[in-house]
Design brief:
Number of strands: 0
Helix content: 55-70%
Low-confidence stretches: 1-10
Shape: elongated
Radius of gyration: 23 Å
Distance between the termini: 70 Å
Length: 139
């Protein structure tokens, strides 16, 4: 039984990530200063340096991002290289979304650390105030 579109948000993002993954990759390519040929060349170089024995072609990349080729997906082991070359984490965010997870870059990680530190400092202030009040009430 399928859920009406109005109920989809109740269950979070769909686990069918293909259209969103391809859209994120297309957006990454569009925002990149590199041509598709350069992306393929840099991915091949990066993968070779990592010991991954694969040869990516522009035709493969074109199929991976084509909505009219839903059966052609970038292999999971190649996705990090794509993301690194085009400097985007958006495709990874698409994978994480159905799980309720987010991808945090270095800035977001620092902001989370700052938030944790502020919460801890607030808790410490409350503990200190409570201890001071208790001391004042002691004979």
């Amino acid at each position: 039984m399928s859920n009406p579109a109005s109920q989809m948000d109740l269950f979070g993002p769909s686990v069918d990530i293909v259209p969103r993954l391809k859209a994120a990759m297309v957006h990454g390519l569009a925002e990149s200063r590199l041509s598709r040929e350069q992306v393929v060349e840099r991915m091949n170089r990066l993968l070779a340096e990592a010991g991954v024995n694969v040869a990516i072609t522009k035709a493969s990349l074109d199929k991976w991002v084509s909505l009219s080729s839903p059966g052609h997906l970038i292999p999971l082991r190649l996705l990090p290289a794509f993301c690194q070359v085009v400097e985007t984490t958006a495709p990874l965010a698409v994978l994480a979304a159905p799980l309720g997870a987010v991808i945090a870059g270095p800035r977001e990680q620092r902001l989370m650390e700052l938030g944790r530190a502020q919460l801890l400092a607030k808790q410490a202030r409350k503990t200190r105030q409570r201890a001071l009040l208790e001391l004042e009430e002691m004979p």
